[in-house]
Design brief:
The complex is a heterodimer of chains A (about 170) and B (about 180). With about 170 residues, chain A is of the alpha+beta class. Chain A contains four helices and five strands. In chain A, helix 3 packs across helix 4. Chain A is elongated and about 85 Å long. Chain B is an alpha+beta fold and about 180 residues long. Chain B is built from five helices and five strands; from the N terminus they run αααββαββαβ. In chain B, the strands form two sheets. Chain B has a three-stranded mixed sheet with strand order 3-4-5. In chain B, helix 4 packs antiparallel against helix 5. Chain B is elongated, with a radius of gyration of 27 Å. The chains are: A alpha+beta (about 170), B alpha+beta (about 180). At the A-B interface, helix 1, helix 2, strand 2 and helix 3 of A face helix 1, helix 3, helix 5 and strand 5 of B. Strand 2 of chain A pairs parallel with strand 5 of chain B, so a sheet runs across the interface. Chain B: Keywords: Membrane, Transmembrane, Transmembrane helix.
Chain lengths: ~170, ~180
């Protein structure tokens, strides 16, 4: 999405400039008595629907593009004046995942993270949820607390174990 | 860290929202069979009565769109500046400064790779890739203690603006043979 926005931006800029120039020329022509004749459309005419739908669809595409072209960032504390450090939610998930996977009895774990929440989903064959969950929660919370995050996300842990199956 | 695309995103979002509003309104008016001219006589009458301000307003709007559009296009295609630094009689090239800071950053324990750009005079942008399992807090601390403070003292400045992004590398999948 970033690349697409980078490619489209000059074209969109030129399109905006062209539209502005067209409007300015139309006003000047009207002022000098050589006004362009505009189509006498009513709202029920088909070209209005086609133009309106195209405009709305294009606008929606642009909105989606603008919202998806950013990189999610997690700010860390500033270590010095003028220094801004950020990381990504993916990196935070990897930090927590690394610590959780190192725990005894954890077969695998998947972690998703955002600015506000860290969700851990661990699999174990040897421990049930009641035994393992408190320990993993503590480990995951400690991993988050060790980071220089100005806002600490909430941590939740789910353990999936065959021992919990009835 | 990549060059920021915030302006491009805001411009695209504003243009998109405007297009969606105008286009959506046209579709709705068509759908509800509003049988009135698009150039509404009431609006045209009002515009005729206020001809000068309307003309001036539309002209200003058109020129504003031209300026904004050209600025947006130029901003999107211009190459990023990497200015050299002048220290008394010596000129330090942006490339040399970036290479020196990168070499220092790659010495930090846990850093697998670093990309450094000089984006102001002086201002830096760093993107550090950390090894899987690296101690992020230690890297964060050493980044200022060892890398940026050294750059500050070498350049003789108290404050060296820097935007730093830390990325933790993926864990390597273990193969079972």
């Amino acid at each position: 999405m970033r690349v697409l926005l980078r490619v489209l931006s000059p074209l969109l800029g030129l399109a905006l400039a062209a539209a502005g120039a067209l409007l300015a020329v139309a006003v000047v022509r009207h002022w000098t008595g050589r006004a362009w004749s505009l189509p006498d459309w009513s709202w029920v005419d088909r070209p209005v629907l086609v133009l309106g739908a195209s405009l709305a669809a294009g606008g929606l595409v642009l909105l989606v593009l603008a919202s998806r072209a950013g990189v999610a960032q997690l700010p860390l504390d500033d270590p010095a004046d003028g220094v801004r450090v950020v990381t990504t939610p993916t990196s935070l998930a990897r930090v927590v995942g690394h610590r959780v996977r190192a725990e005894e009895g954890v077969l695998d774990a998947s972690v998703t993270a955002s600015r506000r929440k860290v969700r851990v989903r661990a699999r174990s064959r040897v421990h049930d949820e009641a035994t393992l969950r408190p320990r993993l929660l503590e480990v995951a919370q400690a991993a988050v607390a060790d980071l220089p995050l100005p806002v600490r996300p909430k941590v939740s842990v789910v353990v999936i174990s065959p021992k919990d199956r009835p | 860290m990549n060059r920021s695309n915030r302006v491009e995103r805001v411009m695209a979002a504003v243009l998109g929202a405007l297009a969606l509003l105008v286009g959506g309104a046209a579709v709705l008016l068509h759908r509800f069979d509003v049988d009135r001219p698009v150039l509404d006589p009431v609006v045209l009458d009002w515009a005729r009565r206020h001809l000068l301000p309307v003309r001036l307003g539309l002209l200003a709007l058109g020129l504003l769109a031209v300026v904004l559009g050209l600025w947006w296009a130029w901003r999107a295609i211009r190459p990023e500046r990497h200015p050299d630094l002048r220290l008394d009689d010596v000129v330090v090239t942006a490339k040399a400064l970036a290479a020196a800071v990168r070499a220092d950053a790659e010495q930090v324990h846990g850093v697998a790779g670093a990309k450094v750009s000089v984006v102001g005079s002086p201002a830096l942008r760093l993107r550090l890739t950390l090894r899987h399992g690296a101690d992020v807090t230690r890297v964060w601390r050493e980044l200022d203690d060892r890398v940026l403070s050294r750059a500050r003292s070498a350049l003789g400045v108290d404050v060296l603006p820097a935007a730093v992004r830390l990325d933790l590398a993926k864990r390597e999948r273990q193969r079972v043979r």
